[in-house]
Amino acid sequence: MKHVHRALVTAATALAVIAVPAAVSAAPQETDRAGLQEQLDHVVATGAVGALAEVRDEHGVWRGTSGVAELGTSRPVPVGGKFRVGSITKTFVATVVLQLVDEGRLRLDDTVAKWLPGVVPNGQHITVRNLLSHTSGLYDYRLTLQMPPAPKFLVNRWRTWTAPELVQRAVANAPSFEPPGSAYKYSNTGYILLGQIIEQVTGRPYGEEIKARIIQPLHLRDISLPGTSPRIGEPHPHGYVPIEQADGTHLVDYTEMNPSVMGASGEIISTTKDLNHFIAALLNGRLLPGHLLDEMKTPGVESKKYGLGLAWQDTSCGVRVYGNDGDALAYQSWSFATEDGRRQATVALTPDFQVDTDDVVDALLDKGFCG
């Protein structure tokens, strides 16, 4: 269900020599259903240090973990462990934007120039809808940053980035395409701008709006927006990135880092339980009226299964599921639910970067929804 190619799988060959412990299954309290634990173990055996999942449906709740919480130990991944959700943050941001649309304080056809004059070239032709649907053509600022396995990646580990800095890095490059709205190109820059627009409209940082409008009303006690704080909070599995060193490429513990580099495009920390609750509440109409939820489910371009901060996929049993996925480098996550929000599945893992795990995670999610 990944709509973003994993940027770090190019390090797989170099990491083939890294020893990762075999999968260690943490037996869940609930009875295993239809091989979910077996499939989760397969995810870890394929390409992860550790993984955790929660599936909710008419039969109840299944939770499972596999692998280890930290390399060099036998400590199991905590069932209620916290992790960085990456781009699932975008669904929270999009929800707040659409709530402001519902209140008449913002329009989907408002231009970037209206709210952030002079910030973006051609801003008078790029709309809020374009930013939400990745059809703005704005260059992705992430492509301007050092990435693993380059050793220089670690230089900025503790650096605090501002939204204007990240936007400036992006707009120093030519657009990916023109005119806006004519194509799809994933761009984290659009969501950094949406965070700024939320602040312009409300007078408060986007993080405060997410807390007031989503986290607090839904009682999502384990979701947080860390801002510049490097810590995740307990309990949590450790996450790693591959880094080239003198004697080869090794996994370096990257659990703690300054998340301002992700900002409104990916800073949220959560648990599987709270992500399931959020996606279910969104899809069953607790956060948005029906016509705006329909907007969220409408693709920006016909060839992509991505609307306004929301992605979707059709399972093997013909059930369409909606949600999003996220890549926070040391953590990867997937959270989807059926259209009525009654069946949900969230998976998070700490990759070892030997292979791309998308296919095996897809198989786990498919089993969760189809049995």
Automatic annotation (TrEMBL):
User: InterPro entries given for it?
Assistant: AmpC-like, Beta-lactam-related, Beta-lactam/transpept-like
Keyword annotations for this protein?
Answer: Hydrolase, Signal
The molecular function terms in GO held by this entry are:
hydrolase activity
This chain belongs to the protein called: Serine hydrolase
Where does the record locate the signal sequence feature? 1-26
Q: Does the keyword S-adenosyl-L-methionine apply?
A: no
Q: Which residues form the Beta-lactamase-related domain?
A: 49-342
Give a yes or no for keyword Lyase in this entry: no
